[in-house]
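Methods — Computational structure assignment.
A single polypeptide chain was analysed. Its primary sequence is given first, followed by the predicted tertiary structure written as structure tokens.
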Amino acid sequence: MAGAGWIRRRTGLRTVVAAAVAVPVLATVRASSRAGALGETPGRAGPVPPLEVMTFNLRFASAKEPHSWAARRPVTRALLRAAAPHVIGSQEGRSSQVRDIEADLGPHYDRIGTGRGGGDDESMTVFYDTRRLTPVEHAHFWLSDTPGVPGSNTWGAAHPRMVTWVRFRDLRAGGREFCVFNTHLDNRSRYARLRSVSLIARRLARFDRALPMLVTGDFNAVAHRDAVHAGLLNAGLVDTWDAARRRGAAYGTYHGYREPRPGGDRIDWILASPFVTVHRARVDTFSVNGQYPSDHLPVQVSLSL
């Protein structure tokens, strides 16, 4: 399978496998002397710079014009290099597209992800800056009655849906750990979205409450106007857009390659534990000559754990 690998145990990384089957992945954490060297450095003296976190529905790669991946890739590269996030929770990326983004981000980025169908298809890939972060453990689970079964879909969703989560150690914060849950809820079935949120809340509750949690995703539900959003807030999270000390202009995060709409519906969110300090939140409207990187706008927050 082109571009696929297999989950396996690596030095310094505890890989959690939810099912008793091997799960093909678009990329697991690569063993490297670079990551090992970083892992041996617990932190640096002085103020800890904010952690930059992004959620970004990439819109799957296709050859269809005028918004082919060939046309969008250089714009995506320019956006990500300018934004310089330490963590990107991405949705919809296909394996070749994910490899392109990793190459465009540069050698100090790595990625963890697997196809939502259990193979080489759209994924919930988490990209991370290895100069700042090292993964401790990660796992995948599917949003269904059988979350350990790759590709499972029991709630009437249009597609299999899943979560990829990664527990990171922040090398600039004395080795402080935090966890990122990255997901993409179904676009068709409200029932599936509500069941998905219930499962995500139960999985979040398994972690120590003192561990900072971040949830990134395209939720296909409008913030503050949908039970999906309320369900995650009731699970003990806060919406970083609301919690931010400073915010950029508000836009609808799905724009369909049209001019972004001020004050539109926000369906792409970054949620966090309530004790996380959110310095700034913004919706990135970057484009080049009218070409947008995706039909969604990325959301980025600067925060301290």
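Note: Confidence is low (pLDDT under 50) at residues 1-44.
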